[in-house]
Amino acid sequence: MSLEEKKEFLAEVFELEEEEVVETVILNDLETWDSVAILSIIAFMGEKFNKYPLAKEISKFKTMGEIIDMMNESE
Question: Rounded CA gap, 32 and 21, in Å?
Answer without folding.
Answer: 13
